[in-house]
Amino acid sequence: MPTAAANKKRKADAPAEEIEDPEHQTLEYINLTTHTGHFGSKPIKMNWGAETPQERGPVIATVKHGGQRNAIGAHSGGYCIYTALAVAAGELNPSHIPNLAQTAPVYEFGPFPSWKNPKSIVTIDPWGHDVVSAFAPYYEKGYDIRPTIAVTKAHIDFPEVKDAIRLGRVVPDGTILMEHGQTMVTKAAIEPVWYLPGVAERFGCSEATLRQALFKETNMMYPELLTRTDIKLFLPPIGGMTVYIWGNPGTIADPNVPLTVRVHDECNGSDVFGSDICTCRPYLAHAIEECIKGAQNGGNGVVVYYRKEGRALGEVTKYLVYNMRKRAEGGDLASEYFNCTHRVAGITDTRFQAMMPDALHWLGITKIDRFISMSDMKYDAIVNSGIEIIERVPIPPELVPADAQVEIAAKVFVGYHGGDKYSVTEEDLKKVKGRS
């Protein structure tokens, strides 16, 4: 497995002696109230969107450096609670510092122009996969800086790909697709790092309004959102995303190399267990097949898998909606598909695709030749972020499960791109009905 050094070695542009010594806070003492300018509070500088990592500064979000933290929240998203349980149970030493030897990314992405634009990427640390190299002077000083991105390689064994081989839709080539159906990918796991001024701008609100909403709607879990307005970074307690790449990672950013892309939001019931009430797994399988074909033909394929279960409303809410749909008077009607979600959740979707293109900008993508999605919201978000999309590819009708006809009809009717495969009138919508 190649290491980052096999690609290119970054050069730190600030000597360690110019960086202040790290604090080593005693973990027995807890400061419950912190304010801007509080005694002993001196966050490490953060100049989001700077030209170099040293000019920008590292993300400091561990508990060891006290007043030098420049991020609110904790690493690993919601999994930080399990870290706390491990500490409480005496199984994990809270002073542990990860040994990052031999963990370098198998491919070192970037830097791309989008990394240096504070508006292009506001929910990911673009240097998060390369912190050991990019912030070497801080490590020399003894700082505990954690990667927020990890890049590795894998063999993917997806049953539908084997079906595609059997049916002759794809042919093993021994490089992208193996004889027994395994595909070779490069993949990157990404934890969210929010630059709050940039996130607020995406949503058309003030930073203060965003901070207040985050504080209130997390039941006041993060008082520093209000008391530490000097800290601009937030590591939210949410799931991240995983990027899967078929082909050559080094040419993804080249607009002359054909690129197939799907951005897919998590659906555990369908993606993992095969529930037939939606098109999630069939569309994901189709995207993987198209990515394989694209890579075999000299291009690349990318699937970005976002942890946004149930349109980011959560699986409990999703199942409540399922019950309402199936028990509705008149049956599970396509005309009531979105209304049922709104009655339960008060809103139909909280995925807010305005943040979604950041992963594509992290990869340096400027043009997508084939976009495997019908979503108007995803398409609009990507195009509005400056990425060109040439072709939109609907899911083939034969891949849509019978009970998912409700979903596909409802979505096409409200604006999802059906191409020449789907067309739904108001009269058609009233006729589409799922099983009880």
Structural account:
Helices cover 29% and strands 14% of the residues. Helix 14 links the parallel strand 10 (367-371) and strand 11 (388-392). The N and C termini lie far apart (51 Å). The protein is built from 16 helices and 12 strands. The chain has 436 residues and is an alpha/beta fold. Residues 1-9 have low confidence and may be disordered. The strands form 3 sheets. A 7-stranded mixed β-sheet has the order 2-3-6-8-7-10-11, with helices on both faces.
Helix and strand sequence = HEHHHEHEEHHHEEEHHEHEHHEHEHHE
How many individual β-strands?
A: 12
Q: Which consecutive residue ranges, at least 5 long each, have pLDDT under 50?
A: 1-9
Mean pLDDT: 92
Major sheet description: 7 strands, mixed
Label the structural class.
alpha/beta
**Radius of gyration from CA coordinates:** 23 Å
* Beta-strand share of residues: 5-15%
Residues in helices, as a percent range: 25-40%
How many angstroms separate the termini?
51 Å
Question: Rough shape?
Answer: globular
Strand order of the largest sheet: 2-3-6-8-7-10-11
The number of helices is: 16
